[in-house]
User: Which sequence fits this backbone?
């Protein structure tokens, strides 16, 4: 498959490994800057694994260092698996191009842009082309816990607000990957996790990749929150699991060894010409022929997800495929592909000295885990980086991936990634500072709430996004640290993990804003900290002695109005 003599490749590999080993000396500093406990890395070149390594402690109690088999949550790196399965199903005639999704999910009726439900096809779901808002806090709450039920997916997708025209721009949206998982179930009668295992994990031999925490053995990375002070606090593992709405968006757990196998198959697909026309062996051996045909179907599907389907910006050569970024190097600031609100404040061009080439891959972030894998099909190269860091002070995985890619190809001029990490760290703190200062600036002083807090209590519902808010007066045991204040307790969907203690902001507006970024992280508000308005609970439309409505902004940096929750049971008062 790979051109060039083995001798030349081995000699080149030795030089590359030496550069990689030298570059890895910067990794502990980057981990420290970004407050990341540990990382596992792997590098493929010329189709061969040339380096794997673990740095830091993935289990603080035992002092265990991660290795190539240590399992980490990979978050949105899951998306390419979902996309590949759907293309395999297309080859099995389960769906076809030109067929709107609503033809087999008739209950899909996008209220704020009917073009989506009338015209959207499976590729539109996979390339973030809907133009509808993501409303991330309609899907996940404190600690990243999943809020809706599986059966809520179609209704929520139908009621997402419009932010741009259909197919007019790239707008990242996890809800439509949830819908993609729903379609896999609808078309196969099998759960998403089972189909992914049968169609991808087993054929590739990814024996340490799972969709459920119940499948883990002892060699997995623990979840921690590392504060700015570098104190480390254990957390529960990510709750996103098989059978949940966003399983196809971010539920997979994997390891370096398995993801390098995945990279090899993506490379094989990229470098094969017309995989449909490959010979399929001895037709008399039916079992072997069936196996080879399945392999061809997998490669053809992997080739399809690599096609650039949706430009990241109107004039950009950079694009999103189906579950993969499809980038043309040189490229500006790969950090913007991860947590765009926490990135560098100075421009730099990654791969400046490289001849133009395609870079494929994705990044992921989920509840104190970050991940990145990047693939160069032209040289059969790949880099995989998995960490158990929160990303709150910068995405260590993607920065370290760039360190390794720079060493892999000896890119000049060399970028100082310790400086990059420090700049991202400083900006992450600025994001929090700006959020907190905006929250303070919008606050009106010298106002008081209703003397009778029962004016606010009750059940408020937003059926469009399948969310319920129960507002009560908290018991003393819930609020010992704020006992001197007037407080309310808000609970989402009756979930014990989704309790928010509210204190008065101004007028009839309440808030759950912490006073430090560390308090925010320990309270499970990692994803809220980019927008001050997400911390605001506004009670409106008072009728008699009670309020009839609550407004809450559930999106981050999206031009949409706050979502409205109507009181239930007013007639009985």
Assistant:
């Amino acid at each position: 498959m790979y051109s060039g003599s083995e001798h030349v490749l081995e000699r080149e590999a030795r030089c590359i490994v030496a550069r990689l080993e030298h570059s890895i000396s910067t990794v502990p500093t980057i981990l420290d800057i970004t407050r990341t406990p540990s990382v596992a890395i792997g590098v493929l070149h010329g189709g061969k694994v040339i380096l794997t390594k673990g740095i830091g402690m993935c289990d603080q109690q035992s002092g265990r260092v991660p290795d190539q088999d240590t399992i980490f949550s990979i978050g949105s790196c899951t998306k390419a698996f979902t996309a590949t399965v759907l293309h395999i199903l297309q080859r099995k005639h389960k769906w076809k191009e030109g067929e709107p999704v609503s033809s087999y999910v008739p209950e899909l009726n996008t209220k704020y842009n009917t073009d989506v439900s009338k015209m959207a096809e499976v590729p539109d779901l996979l390339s973030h082309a809907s133009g509808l808002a993501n409303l991330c806090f309609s899907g996940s709450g404190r600690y990243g816990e999943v809020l809706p039920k599986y059966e809520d997916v179609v209704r929520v997708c139908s009621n997402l607000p419009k932010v741009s025209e259909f197919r007019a721009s790239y707008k990242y949206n996890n809800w439509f990957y949830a819908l993609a998982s729903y379609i896999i179930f609808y078309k196969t009668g099998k759960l998403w996790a089972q189909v992914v295992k049968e169609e991808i994990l087993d054929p590739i031999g990814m024996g340490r990749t799972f969709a459920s925490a119940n499948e883990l053995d002892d060699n997995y990375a623990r979840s921690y929150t590392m504060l700015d002070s570098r104190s480390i606090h254990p957390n529960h593992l990510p709750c996103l699991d098989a059978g949940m709405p966003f399983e196809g968006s971010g539920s997979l757990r994997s390891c370096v060894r398995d993801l390098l196998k995945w990279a090899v198959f993506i490379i094989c697909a990229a470098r094969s010409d017309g995989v449909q026309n490959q010979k399929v062996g001895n037709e008399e051996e039916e079992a072997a022929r069936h196996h080879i045909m399945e392999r061809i179907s997998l490669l053809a599907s992997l080739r399809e997800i690599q096609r650039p389907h949706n430009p990241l910006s109107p004039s950009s050569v950079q694009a999103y495929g189906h579950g993969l970024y499809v980038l043309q190097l040189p490229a500006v600031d790969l950090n913007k592909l991860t947590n765009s609100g926490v990135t560098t404040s100075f421009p730099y061009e990654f791969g400046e000295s490289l001849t133009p080439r395609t870079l494929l891959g994705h990044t992921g972030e989920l509840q104190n885990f970050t991940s990145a894998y990047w693939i160069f099909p032209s040289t059969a190269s790949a880099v995989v980086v998995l960490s158990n860091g929160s990303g709150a002070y910068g995405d260590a995985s993607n920065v370290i991936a760039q360190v390794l890619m720079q060493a892999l190809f000896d890119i000049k001029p060399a970028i100082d990634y310790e400086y990059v990490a420090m700049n991202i760290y400083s900006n992450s703190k600025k994001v929090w500072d700006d959020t907190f200062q905006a929250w303070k600036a919008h606050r009106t002083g010298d106002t008081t709430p209703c003397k009778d807090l029962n004016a606010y209590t009750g059940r408020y519902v937003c059926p469009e996004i399948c969310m319920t808010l129960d507002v009560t007066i908290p018991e003393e045991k819930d609020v010992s640290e704020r006992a001197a204040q007037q407080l309310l307790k808000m609970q989402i969907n009756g979930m014990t993990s989704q309790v928010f203690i509210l204190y008065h902001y101004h007028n009839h507006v309440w808030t759950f804003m912490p006073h430090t970024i560390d308090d925010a992280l320990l309270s499970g508000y990692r994803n809220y900290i980019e927008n001050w308005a997400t911390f605001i609970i506004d009670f409106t439309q008072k009728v008699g002695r009670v309020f009839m409505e609550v407004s809450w902004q559930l999106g981050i940096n999206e031009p949409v109005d706050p979502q409205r929750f109507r009181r239930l049971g007013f007639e009985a008062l």
